[in-house]
Design goal:
heterodimer, A: 415 residues, 4-stranded antiparallel sheet, globular, B: alpha/beta, 6-stranded mixed sheet, 25% helix, 23% strand, flagellum (chain A), cell projection (chain A), cilium (chain A)
Chain lengths: 415, 182
């Protein structure tokens, strides 16, 4: 094994090692999820050197520099004030979902008008219209971190794979018997997983365009799915009140997470793949041990359905958004409530952290999106202008640009 | 009504829950009708750029009514909403005689749609409060509603603005729920 070079990863903090083994170039990540600006750098470097055989004494100084750069990045105070940069009259009919590529240089919007559009973030110009679906384009994704491909899932029961650069359609994946409402690329970008109202999820091979396997077992619609960071496990959340954990290579179901008393709305892994968070119409959020499938905590408190849940990048915090028009920030380890985000005048359907984990963005049916301080729960900004409900919102990787997609057929860029 | 709520309304509805599609040309009064059904304020209604959905209770049934914009450029997308429709409601501006032909063609196309086969259709002859409104019987004849085969149909004179006739139409809808839903 020979170390070729280091790559720095800001969010979540980590150092990627590129090394050669048996003539092949490989990478591995050293996660530094607990790194703080005040952490003693010698301790961190010592621990890395002790645990990681690739870090030989001659490389220690370089590692120290990288850790110190990560600390600098972490200590940058973040008081970015967002302004409306552009209103994009994006579609003829309401938007569904929005997503950035990793760098944030472009983003995509799905719509009831059966198209997905690719936009240039800095100019607000439309780069491509991905046409071909025969019904609503509901679920969309970039194959981040690469960002050269786009997947679209439609109510026409098919999923399509596109080139992000040319807008050309590579494959149409056929096999679902009902609407496709969620999808994801695996982190290696070799497969796409799709979840459908037909109660199944399917894995598709990006190269061949063939179905790899069908994940059957849910008794109602699948409306949420996610890969873990390593890509060996997939979770599916269903209207049958359960979440299933699947082994990707074998297609076997490893666990069924049973405990919610109503439909699941969202299911997510944390970064280190140890925990799963689930939100449900039963007004609760649950935290599960991803290895054993046991429920390790139930977060009650919302007065109405929990519509979205998400971890921050490092997995320290958990966000819940509810139809009761509030959102909450929890400590993942202690399950303690850190803050309540109160102020919206309608249900909150989407919630997300900025990559730094310092700001929270919420999208609501009250036609506003809001930016919050996660520690104090203080509302930092109300983003007004949309004339109908906001369905979706997203941060770019730097945390400096946000997009919101609305039922008013427009998309707005804030920066 | 976020995206998740849309998915829940999209799925095959349980007993005593109906999916109703509200269509018609632009300015026919679909959104006003929808708001009247839901007993909401109708004073500020603008052209529908997408769709509205409301759940209305009637005779023990929950009616999920989908109101889709009627502008010409939106009409090709009506088919996005056909699946699992239990009852079609078609709204006509009875005072806009110039557009009777256009509305007749659109309705004819809808009735030919495979996904709407056998689906009962209620035609609201709306805007009866206007002095130049054509009576329901004249519209039924002009649109050759009597020639409809293979489905239940009804024409109901109404005024979405005053609410007159709206309830009668909804009662017909509940009475003509397709078999298997009752």
């Amino acid at each position: 094994m020979k170390l070729k070079r280091f790559l720095l990863r800001y969010y979540p903090p980590g150092i990627i090692l590129e090394y050669e083994q048996g003539g092949l170039l490989k990478t591995k990540a050293i996660d530094l999820l607990d790194l703080r600006p005040e952490t003693d750098i010698d301790d961190v470097v010592d621990e890395i050197t002790r645990k990681e055989p690739l870090i030989t004494p001659s490389k220690v100084e370089q590692v120290r520099k990288l850790v110190s750069r990560l600390q600098e990045k972490l200590s940058q105070t973040d008081d970015h004030h967002f302004y409306l940069f552009k209103v994009l009259r994006a579609h003829i009919l309401p938007l569904t979902n929005v997503a950035f590529n990793k760098s944030g240089s472009s983003f995509i919007t799905g719509s009831y008008d059966r198209t997905c559009k690719v936009w240039d973030t800095s100019s607000g110009e439309e780069m491509h219209t991905l046409e071909g679906h025969r019904n609503v384009v509901y679920a969309i994704a970039f194959n981040n971190p690469y960002g050269d491909k786009i997947a679209t899932g439609s109510f026409d029961k098919t999923c399509k794979l596109w080139s992000a650069e040319t807008g050309k359609c590579y494959h149409t994946f056929r096999g679902h018997a009902a609407e496709i409402v969620c999808l994801a690329f695996n982190p290696q970008s070799t497969m796409i997983a799709t979840g459908s109202m037909d109660t199944s999820a399917k894995l598709w091979d990006i190269q061949t365009g063939m179905e790899v396997c069908s994940l059957n077992g849910h008794s109602a619609e699948i409306i949420s799915l996610a890969f873990n960071t390593t890509g060996d496990k997939l979770i599916t959340g269903s209207f049958d009140h359960t979440v299933s954990v699947w082994h990707v290579n074998s297609g076997q179901r490893l666990h069924t997470l049973i405990g919610h008393k109503a439909e699941i709305s969202s299911a997510q892994f944390n970064w280190d793949c140890s925990l799963i968070a689930t939100g449900s119409m039963d007004k609760k959020c649950k935290i599960w041990d991803a290895h054993t499938g046991q429920c390790v905590g139930t977060l009650s408190g919302h007065d109405d359905e929990v519509l979205d849940v998400t971890f921050d990048f490092t997995g320290k915090y958990l966000l819940t958004a509810s139809a009761d028009s509030t959102a909450r920030v929890y400590n993942v380890t202690t399950h303690q409530l850190i803050s309540k985000l109160e102020g919206h005048e309608g249900e909150i359907s989407k919630i997300t952290f900025n990559p730094q984990g310092t700001r929270v963005l919420t999208a609501s049916s009250d036609k506003t999106a809001r930016v919050w301080d996660h520690e104090t729960g203080e509302c930092k900004q109300v983003l007004e202008g949309h004339t109908d409900e906001i369905f979706s919102c997203a941060f770019n990787y730097e945390g400096t640009t946000m997009i919101t997609g609305s039922k008013d057929n427009t998309c707005r860029i804030w920066r | 009504m976020g995206l998740l709520a849309l998915l829940r309304k999209l799925k095959s509805s349980p007993d005593r829950e109906l999916r109703i599609l509200l269509l018609g040309l632009d300015n026919a009064g679909k959104t006003t009708l929808l708001k009247q059904m839901a007993s909401e304020d109708i004073s500020h209604i603008t052209p529908t750029q997408g769709f509205n959905i409301k759940s209305v209770q009637s005779s023990g049934f929950k009616l999920n009514v989908w109101d889709i914009g009627g502008q010409r450029k939106i009409r090709p997308y009506w088919r996005n909403y056909f699946e699992n429709t239990d009852v079609l409601i078609y709204v006509i501006d009875s005072a806009d005689r110039k557009r009777f032909e256009e509305t007749g063609i659109e309705l004819g196309d809808l009735l030919d749609e495979e996904k709407l086969m056998g689906v009962p259709v209620l035609v609201y002859a709306n805007k009866q409060d206007l002095f130049n409104a054509a009576p329901a019987s004249e519209i039924a004849e002009g649109l050759n509603l009597h020639g409809i085969r293979g489905r239940q149909w009804q024409i109901q004179a109404c005024s979405a603005a005053s609410g007159e006739g709206v309830k009668d139409g909804m009662e017909w809808v509940v009475k003509n729920i397709p078999k298997g839903k009752k």
